[in-house]
């Protein structure tokens, strides 16, 4: 995290936590009415807002996680892909992981985004159950099952230097 006014960081964490609280309800509303552009837009705006603010503040794991979610949501919004149960699972995993990353950031502790959650957002044909405490993944025939954006899972929540290929590793890990 870049050296920011503590008040600014605290305001972001409070706003992001409030948005994250509503995120699960909005994802479930989208799942129950998959044609609802209102529910889809609410989830997209939440990811977009948190992504922009966290990026500005240098909270890269949060920014990268929300960027992956935003990309998936944009594909759903434009009709590039059709909504499925795998999207609900990926978005619920995203909501859990976002809350976990915000909690670490609020304690000024470094952490990484869960690679399985990022993979589920990037590869909707992968069936993933991903929460902050338990993660299992079953790949269902995708050629790109391991493709993730560069550094999507290897940046600590409050630092700009990253260890190579780290996944769920504390910020003080060595290369």
Structure write-up:
The chain is mainly alpha-helical. Helix content is 55%, strand content 5%. The chain is built from five helices and two strands. The protein has a two-stranded antiparallel ribbon with strand order 1-2. The longest helix is centred in the N-terminal third of the chain and has 27 residues, at 6-32. Mean pLDDT is 75; it is low at 126-175.
Gross morphology is globular
Low-confidence stretches: 126-175
The spatial strand order of the largest sheet comes to: 1-2
Helix content class: 40-55%
**Class computed from helices, strands and strand pairing:** mainly alpha
Radius of gyration: 15 Å
Portion of residues in beta strands equals: under 5%
Mean pLDDT: 75
Oligomeric status of the shown chains? single chain
Distance between the termini: 20 Å
Number of strands: 2
**Major sheet characteristics:** 2 strands, antiparallel
What is the ordering of alpha helices and beta strands? HHHHHEE
Q: Counting H and I runs of at least 4 residues, what is the number of helices?
A: 5
Short description:
By secondary structure, this protein is mainly alpha-helical. 55% of the residues lie in helices and 5% in strands. The chain has 5 helices and 2 strands; from the N terminus they run αααααββ.
């Amino acid at each position: 995290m870049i050296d920011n006014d503590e008040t600014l960081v605290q305001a972001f964490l409070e706003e992001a936590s409030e948005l994250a609280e509503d995120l699960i309800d909005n994802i479930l509303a989208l799942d129950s009415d998959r044609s609802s552009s209102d529910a889809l837009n609410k989830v997209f705006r939440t990811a977009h807002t948190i992504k922009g603010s966290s990026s500005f503040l240098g909270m890269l794991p949060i920014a990268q996680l929300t960027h992956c979610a935003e990309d998936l949501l944009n594909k759903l919004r434009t009709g590039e892909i059709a909504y499925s149960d795998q999207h609900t699972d990926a978005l619920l995993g995203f909501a859990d992981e976002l809350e976990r990353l915000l909690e670490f950031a609020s304690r000024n502790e470094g952490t990484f985004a869960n690679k399985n959650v990022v993979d589920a957002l990037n590869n909707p044909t992968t069936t993933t159950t991903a929460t902050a405490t338990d993660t299992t993944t079953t790949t269902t025939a995708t050629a790109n099952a391991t493709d993730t954006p560069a550094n999507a899972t290897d940046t600590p929540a409050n630092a700009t230097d990253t260890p190579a290929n780290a996944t769920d590793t504390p910020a003080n890990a060595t290369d």
